[in-house]
Every structure is written in C-alpha cells, then in structure tokens.
Design a protein that fits this description.
alpha/beta; Rossmann fold; Hypothetical Protein, Haloacid Dehalogenase-like Hydrolase, Chain: A, domain 2; 6-stranded mixed β-sheet; 31% helix; HAD_sf
Length: 283
C-alpha cells in the first residue's frame, strides 16, 4: 500500500509548454494531486529548486508536509514553516569551488535558504531562462566570492552548456569530491543546458527521502518515487514503487524495471503522463 509519494518536479509535473504546464503544472495534475492528498497520502516534492519556486504548487494542492528542496540541501514544510534540515556548505569549501568555476568561465549561482545569487558580469539570457524556471529574480552581486562569507550556502549550481560541457564541469569538480557532493538535473525549458547541484558532503535527494521516512514513520517500501532523469534513481531506488515519465532518460526507464511489477512508465510530461502513473497504482 502506497502511503507517500516522492515526486520530482521539472520534467515530471512541470514541462516546457509555457501556459500549459510551465512554469506551473497543468490544472488537471493539480486537481489529481489535491485529490490524492485529501485521501491522507503524503506527497513530497523532490527538487533541486528552492522551496519558494514550488511554493504555489505546495499551497494550491495543500501539501502541508515535508518537501525536499535544493537537491536535498533543505527539507522543509513551508506552509507550517517547519525546517527539518538545512545542510550548510562550509564557507571554505564554497569559496574554493566557486572560485574554480568562475575562473573557468562557468555560469555559477549559489543559494541561501531564501535567495539565490549570481555575479553581475555573468548576467545573460540564461539568467532570464532561470528566472522563469525559479519564478524569482536572482540577487545580483559584484562578486560571488565576497558574498560567500556573508551567506549560509545550501547549494552551489554551476550550469553546463550541454552534455560535452558537462564533462568539463565534472572534471573541474574532481579536487572537491571528498568534501562536497555533485549531482545533475535538467529542465525542459533550459535544454540543452544541464544544472550541476553541489551540496554538502553526503547530502542528496536519496538521503533526504530516508530522513523524511524516518520523521513521518513511513517505510521506504510504502513510498512511490517518480522522476525523469537518471539522477532521480538515487531517491526512486529507495522506494518500493517506481514511476518514470515517457520523456525520461532511457537509463532511468531501464532502472525502474528493477522494481518488477511495482513500476510503470507513463506518457511524457507534456501529455500529463503522471496521471497514467497515478491510474496504474490506483491513486
């Protein structure tokens, strides 16, 4: 029996059709989520975004429960103003990795609990795209390096231009892999850009799902995890049930087959494929 659902946001309930399912899910998806929540099933959004970027979804559906934001860096219930976890990156570690990316001309952002920051000389069309995705303007500063010492940083986000550039960014991260964690996310609106998600060591969506389960006393095998990218497997693997979107990577589709009969692949996000997954599991 499914008692909780862990849902990635971008590429799952938010797509690329502006006004249809971007920057906000389709009304039918919102209605179904609300109906499921009213049955007493916990629905936790699991995203690399900060909480304020998914606040409207949380409020409209009535999801007064814990959510995974900033790639696991923050676990929060913004309706009841409860912060279960806020994993701060050490200033010394943040300084080193940000310096590395900036010196190699990588578009870089960093995030506190309530704001995100970019350097003035990096402002570009990508800034506009990410503003649409996050539904909030960045805090623009003269120097990210100087700002590091003033903020509690929960996430650093270097952005790759494409898959080839991602390899370069991964290589640049190599000296920091023992102190920080790097994962990757995508967004249909920003493609082919890829978003690096740097958190404190050992902090990820996987770890956050475990923490939520322990807090609300729901076992992992009573959870349904739904995603669209291979990085989502880190949390879906923990769940007893798995769903993947039609637009999901082939690698993720292959991985969810490991769940045997307890998985389903729905249509693409732009066809509201998550409804297929809910139907399959009788939700």
């Amino acid at each position: 029996m499914i008692k909780a659902i862990i849902i990635d946001v971008d590429g799952v309930i938010v797509g690329e059709k502006i006004g249809f399912n971007s920057p906000y899910p389709h009304p039918e998806v919102i209605r179904r989520l609300k109906s499921i929540r009213e049955k007493g099933i916990t629905i936790s959004l699991c995203t690399a975004k900060p909480h304020y970027s998914v606040q409207k979804i949380i409020e409209d559906v009535g999801l007064n429960n814990l959510h995974i934001t900033n790639g696991g860096g923050v676990i929060i219930d913004p309706i009841d103003n409860i912060i279960l976890k806020k994993h701060i990156i050490k200033s010394s570690d943040a300084l080193k990795v940000i310096e590395k990316y900036l010196s190699n001309d990588v578009y870089t952002e960093f995030y506190s609990l309530e704001e995100y920051f970019i350097q003035e000389n990096q402002k570009s069309d990508l800034t506009k795209t990410h503003t649409h995705i996050l539904q909030r303007e960045p805090h623009i500063v003269t120097s990210l390096i100087k700002e590091v010492k003033k903020q509690e940083i929960v996430k650093i986000m270097p952005i790759a231009k494409n898959e080839e550039d991602k390899k370069r960014l991964v290589s640049l991260f190599e000296p920091f892999k023992n102190d920080l964690t790097l994962s990757w996310g995508v967004h249909p609106v920003a493609f082919p850009h890829l978003f690096g998600i740097i958190t404190a060591k050992g902090i990820s969506k996987k770890q956050a799902v475990i923490e939520i389960g322990n807090t609300i006393n729901i076992k992992p095998d009573e959870m349904l995890g739904i995603g669209d990218s291979v990085s989502d497997w880190q949390f879906i693997e923990q769940c007893g049930y798995a769903g993947a979107m039609g637009n999901a990577s082939e690698e993720l589709k292959d991985l969810v087959h490991k769940k045997g009969e307890q998985f389903f692949i729905g249509k693409a996000v732009d066809e509201n494929g998550i409804l297929d997954i809910f139907n399959f599991f009788s939700l």
